[in-house]
Design a protein that fits this description.
Blueprint lengths: L3 E2 L2 E4 L1 H15 L1 H14 L8 H25 L1 E3 L13 E7 L6 E6 L11 E2 L4 H6 L7 E5 L5 E11 L3
Parallel strand pairs: 2-3, 5-6
Antiparallel strand pairs: 1-2, 4-5, 4-8, 7-8
Protein backbone atom coordinates (compact mmCIF):
# COMPACT_ATOMS: atom_id res chain seq x y z
CA UNK A 1 0.00 0.00 0.00
CA UNK A 2 1.21 3.53 0.32
CA UNK A 3 2.69 5.93 2.74
CA UNK A 4 3.66 9.33 1.53
CA UNK A 5 6.29 11.33 3.35
CA UNK A 6 7.45 14.35 1.40
CA UNK A 7 7.54 13.10 -2.20
CA UNK A 8 8.22 9.42 -1.45
CA UNK A 9 5.37 6.95 -1.88
CA UNK A 10 5.79 3.48 -0.38
CA UNK A 11 4.32 0.70 -2.50
CA UNK A 12 4.11 -3.04 -2.20
CA UNK A 13 5.74 -4.90 -5.09
CA UNK A 14 2.27 -5.90 -6.31
CA UNK A 15 1.06 -2.28 -6.35
CA UNK A 16 4.24 -1.09 -8.08
CA UNK A 17 3.86 -3.74 -10.80
CA UNK A 18 0.19 -2.86 -11.33
CA UNK A 19 0.95 0.85 -11.75
CA UNK A 20 3.94 0.13 -14.00
CA UNK A 21 1.74 -2.08 -16.23
CA UNK A 22 -0.85 0.71 -16.45
CA UNK A 23 1.87 3.21 -17.44
CA UNK A 24 3.24 0.87 -20.12
CA UNK A 25 -0.25 0.38 -21.58
CA UNK A 26 -1.06 4.11 -21.58
CA UNK A 27 2.34 4.98 -23.08
CA UNK A 28 2.12 2.36 -25.82
CA UNK A 29 -1.07 0.72 -27.11
CA UNK A 30 -3.48 3.29 -25.64
CA UNK A 31 -1.48 6.17 -27.13
CA UNK A 32 -1.59 4.48 -30.55
CA UNK A 33 -5.36 3.93 -30.24
CA UNK A 34 -6.12 7.56 -29.37
CA UNK A 35 -3.87 8.81 -32.18
CA UNK A 36 -5.85 6.65 -34.63
CA UNK A 37 -9.17 8.00 -33.25
CA UNK A 38 -7.97 11.58 -33.72
CA UNK A 39 -6.77 10.85 -37.27
CA UNK A 40 -10.09 9.22 -38.19
CA UNK A 41 -12.08 12.13 -36.75
CA UNK A 42 -9.83 14.65 -38.54
CA UNK A 43 -10.73 13.01 -41.87
CA UNK A 44 -14.42 13.71 -41.25
CA UNK A 45 -13.94 17.34 -42.19
CA UNK A 46 -14.39 20.70 -40.44
CA UNK A 47 -12.68 20.43 -37.04
CA UNK A 48 -14.64 23.35 -35.52
CA UNK A 49 -17.86 21.34 -35.57
CA UNK A 50 -16.44 17.85 -35.23
CA UNK A 51 -17.59 16.43 -31.86
CA UNK A 52 -15.70 13.17 -32.34
CA UNK A 53 -12.44 15.04 -32.87
CA UNK A 54 -12.90 17.21 -29.78
CA UNK A 55 -13.88 14.19 -27.64
CA UNK A 56 -10.81 12.28 -28.82
CA UNK A 57 -8.53 15.26 -28.09
CA UNK A 58 -10.04 15.59 -24.59
CA UNK A 59 -9.52 11.86 -23.99
CA UNK A 60 -5.92 12.23 -25.19
CA UNK A 61 -5.35 15.08 -22.71
CA UNK A 62 -6.70 13.03 -19.80
CA UNK A 63 -4.59 10.05 -20.84
CA UNK A 64 -1.41 12.15 -21.05
CA UNK A 65 -2.12 13.64 -17.62
CA UNK A 66 -2.40 10.13 -16.18
CA UNK A 67 0.90 9.17 -17.88
CA UNK A 68 2.61 12.16 -16.21
CA UNK A 69 1.04 11.30 -12.81
CA UNK A 70 2.13 7.66 -13.01
CA UNK A 71 5.62 8.58 -14.19
CA UNK A 72 6.11 10.95 -11.26
CA UNK A 73 4.60 8.50 -8.77
CA UNK A 74 6.80 5.61 -9.92
CA UNK A 75 9.95 7.78 -10.02
CA UNK A 76 9.40 8.63 -6.34
CA UNK A 77 8.23 5.18 -5.26
CA UNK A 78 9.98 2.96 -2.76
CA UNK A 79 8.98 -0.70 -2.85
CA UNK A 80 8.49 -2.42 0.47
CA UNK A 81 6.37 -4.93 2.30
CA UNK A 82 2.76 -4.57 3.36
CA UNK A 83 2.35 -3.32 6.93
CA UNK A 84 2.59 -5.78 9.81
CA UNK A 85 -0.61 -7.14 11.35
CA UNK A 86 0.13 -5.50 14.70
CA UNK A 87 -3.06 -3.47 15.20
CA UNK A 88 -1.29 -0.14 14.63
CA UNK A 89 -2.98 2.16 12.13
CA UNK A 90 -0.72 3.02 9.19
CA UNK A 91 -1.07 3.32 5.42
CA UNK A 92 -2.15 0.03 3.90
CA UNK A 93 -4.42 -0.88 6.82
CA UNK A 94 -8.18 -1.43 6.83
CA UNK A 95 -9.39 0.51 9.85
CA UNK A 96 -12.71 0.27 11.69
CA UNK A 97 -13.59 3.24 13.88
CA UNK A 98 -16.48 4.11 16.18
CA UNK A 99 -17.63 7.73 16.17
CA UNK A 100 -17.57 9.30 19.64
CA UNK A 101 -16.76 5.83 20.99
CA UNK A 102 -20.28 4.60 20.07
CA UNK A 103 -19.77 1.06 18.73
CA UNK A 104 -23.18 1.16 17.02
CA UNK A 105 -21.94 4.04 14.80
CA UNK A 106 -18.93 2.65 12.95
CA UNK A 107 -17.11 3.05 9.66
CA UNK A 108 -14.50 0.86 7.97
CA UNK A 109 -12.04 2.31 5.46
CA UNK A 110 -8.66 1.75 3.84
CA UNK A 111 -5.95 4.22 4.87
CA UNK A 112 -4.01 4.65 1.62
CA UNK A 113 -3.24 6.88 -1.31
CA UNK A 114 -6.08 7.51 -3.74
CA UNK A 115 -4.16 5.32 -6.19
CA UNK A 116 -5.70 2.43 -4.27
CA UNK A 117 -9.24 3.70 -4.17
CA UNK A 118 -11.46 0.68 -4.66
CA UNK A 119 -15.15 0.09 -5.25
CA UNK A 120 -14.93 -2.50 -2.47
CA UNK A 121 -13.93 -0.16 0.34
CA UNK A 122 -13.85 3.56 1.01
CA UNK A 123 -10.34 5.01 0.97
CA UNK A 124 -8.99 7.85 3.09
CA UNK A 125 -5.63 9.47 2.45
CA UNK A 126 -3.03 9.48 5.24
CA UNK A 127 -2.92 13.27 4.70
CA UNK A 128 -6.69 13.72 5.23
CA UNK A 129 -7.83 15.09 8.60
CA UNK A 130 -9.15 11.64 9.60
CA UNK A 131 -6.00 9.94 8.28
CA UNK A 132 -3.75 12.27 10.28
CA UNK A 133 -5.87 11.71 13.40
CA UNK A 134 -5.80 7.91 13.35
CA UNK A 135 -2.33 7.27 11.89
CA UNK A 136 -0.07 5.66 14.49
CA UNK A 137 -2.89 4.82 16.91
CA UNK A 138 -3.68 1.26 18.06
CA UNK A 139 -6.92 -0.66 18.40
CA UNK A 140 -8.62 0.64 21.55
CA UNK A 141 -7.07 4.13 21.27
CA UNK A 142 -9.10 7.30 20.89
CA UNK A 143 -8.18 9.77 18.14
CA UNK A 144 -9.24 13.33 17.49
CA UNK A 145 -9.36 15.09 14.13
CA UNK A 146 -10.61 18.37 12.74
CA UNK A 147 -13.81 18.51 10.69
CA UNK A 148 -14.11 20.82 7.65
CA UNK A 149 -16.15 23.27 9.76
CA UNK A 150 -13.24 23.59 12.21
CA UNK A 151 -14.85 21.57 15.02
CA UNK A 152 -13.10 18.55 16.52
CA UNK A 153 -14.40 15.00 16.24
CA UNK A 154 -13.41 11.97 18.30
CA UNK A 155 -13.26 8.36 17.16
CA UNK A 156 -12.16 5.12 18.79
CA UNK A 157 -10.03 2.69 16.79
CA UNK A 158 -11.76 -0.70 16.90
CA UNK A 159 -9.54 -2.68 14.52
CA UNK A 160 -6.62 -2.17 12.12
CA UNK A 161 -5.75 -5.01 9.74
CA UNK A 162 -3.51 -5.10 6.64
CA UNK A 163 -5.41 -4.65 3.37
CA UNK A 164 -5.39 -7.58 0.99
CA UNK A 165 -6.68 -6.97 -2.51
Amino acid sequence: MTQTSDNVTWLTQEAYNKLKDELEYLSGPARTEITAKIAAAREEGDLRENGGYHAAKEEQGKQELRVRQLTQLLQNAKVGEAPADDGVVEPGMVVTIAFDGDESDTMTFLLASREYASDDIETYSPQSPLGIGVNGKKAGDDAEYELPNGKKAMVRILTAKPYSS
